[in-house]
């Protein structure tokens, strides 16, 4: 019987879901579904200083919003519960005791100051700084002495000398590390809490993880994890380390760089569609055969494979994400797009918090007019500013249009037509423009441009009849009046 595929995403609850983490979650999820396996979310919270209150709920909420679904985790439970590292301390303690017992790990009493001094001395000698192994072979008397001094030991892993550890990686091929370059590393801190490398290994083993798919930044941790698997006498899982995501300057993305929106929650709040973000993220580092770029979740599940994950970094292009989101927005039912836009219009104070049916209807028509062009919900505010302004500022180009010779005649004639219109709607406006065309003899640009510019201040925009209808009779006549005698 072939082994069931089991993969996991193991975020630390240190903040919001970053696009890099989201991509890892997504690759794991798609791989699991493609293989008919299980996808697990495990919370790795042993680095308590870095934990952030409520980050766990937020991470999970962001993943749920994105459309990633899991089979086992802190919320849904599962056969390997608990799924939060800090709830698994007893388990780690047992394995640490086992390694100590077998001499594969040892107590280290060095203080942070001593370790720092040692590192400085190595650097001064031009050596690569790593733990010297001072506590490797302490006698019982030496240990007792340290204990008497009140020192609390950490536990270090005893790295074997002159060995090679090869990470067999689905993305990077074989990557070999020399054990001599790796000093004995801490697997449990003085308070008994294990370090990441130890907890992750024990958990991946006990949770029967078959493939570890994660960011490349963890590749250098992997030989340590291989050593722990070896010490525990168990087979390691397979690995796939996914290349970095770079920013537009081809630099590693920094979470602190506020010029780039980097968190899933922010995209949700800006009015992006989860399926568009998912589609976009999966293409950061994975590519299907062929040129097609737009995929539903079902198609992604069907197509995803580790063999088409790229070894080279991908560049995060916010413009492409906008393009993709617009592509999805265009295909959505209007109501859904209104849902993306409405909170932003409300936050900007342009629509009431509790809109009347008329206001809602107006908003729907407004959004319908811009749906084709809209990249994301929040953009509606900027795109539709002409509808809310009291005073229009006419720029240089606008003034040039309004200075054309035929303008006073055209605008006056149009004004006269619409003033008497019973129904100030797109159809009525269209008829009015036709009448003006006949009566003044001006047509095309000479007719439409002055009307558009006078009413909106802009040279380009959406359909003129619809735009004027939405502006409403009062605004349009008031704006025209400024340009006629
Ligand atoms: N907790 C680690 C992180 O957030 C997970 C690394 C791993 O997948 O092994 O980076």
List keywords for this structure.
three-stranded antiparallel sheet, Rossmann fold, binds glutamic acid, 11 strands, Helicase, Ruva Protein, domain 3, 9% strand, 20 helices, mainly alpha, 485 residues
CATH superfamily of the largest domain: HUPs
Strand order of the largest sheet: 3-4-7
> Taking all residues together, what is the mean pLDDT?
96
Count of alpha and pi helical runs: 20
Structure ligands: glutamic acid
Description:
The chain has 485 residues and is mostly helical. It has four domains: 6-73 and 246-315, HUPs (Rossmann fold); 86-242, Rossmann fold (3-Layer(aba) Sandwich); 332-386, Helicase, Ruva Protein, domain 3 (Orthogonal Bundle); 396-481, Arc Repressor Mutant, subunit A (Orthogonal Bundle). The chain is 45% helix and 9% strand. It has 20 helices and eleven strands. The protein has helices spanning 19-35, 55-66, 89-101, 112-125, 140-148, 196-206, 222-232, 264-269, 274-282, 297-303, 318-330, 334-347, 357-370, 379-383, 396-402, 407-419, 426-440, 445-456, 464-471, 473-481; strands at 6-9, 38-41, 105-108, 154-157, 164-169, 173-178, 186-188, 211-215, 238-242, 245-246, 314-315. A three-stranded antiparallel β-sheet has the order 3-4-7. The longest helix has 17 residues, at 19-35. The termini are far apart. The mean pLDDT is 96. Glutamic acid (GLU) is lined by residues 10-12, 44, 200, 214, 218.
Furnish the topology, listing elements before pairings.
Blueprint: E1 6-9, H1 19-35, E2 38-41, H2 55-66, H3 89-101, E3 105-108, H4 112-125, H5 140-148, E4 154-157, E5 164-169, E6 173-178, E7 186-188, H6 196-206, E8 211-215, H7 222-232, E9 238-242, E10 245-246, H8 264-269, H9 274-282, H10 297-303, E11 314-315, H11 318-330, H12 334-347, H13 357-370, H14 379-383, H15 396-402, H16 407-419, H17 426-440, H18 445-456, H19 464-471, H20 473-481
Parallel strand pairs: 1-2, 8-9, 10-11
Antiparallel strand pairs: 3-4, 4-7, 5-6
Helix pairs in contact: 1-10, 6-7, 9-11, 12-13, 16-17, 16-18, 16-20, 17-19, 18-20
The chain binds glutamic acid.
